[in-house]
What we know:
The protein is mainly alpha-helical. The chain has helices at 2-9, 12-23, 28-45, 53-74, 78-85. The protein is 79% helix and 0% strand.
Amino acid sequence: MLDIVLKLAAKKENYDFLMVNYLDKKEGEMDLFKEAKEDIDCLCDKRYKDYAEEMKLANLMSTCVKRINEFTKVSKNKKLEADLIL
């Protein structure tokens, strides 16, 4: 049984779920929030290749929304999700 849990925890999404719901209930969600916020900040600094500024911003928004959705799958906290969107 432990082997199965360890194999599942090897995947990032499963590890995050276990962290928030079982391992670190108090601070796990905030740790994931801080990590997601740092990832989004890094995405904003990244240069996107395209011919128009609008397309670059659209690509940026699309990747940020994907990262926010990853956070939302693990954490059902709507306040933290809204903070990431802002």
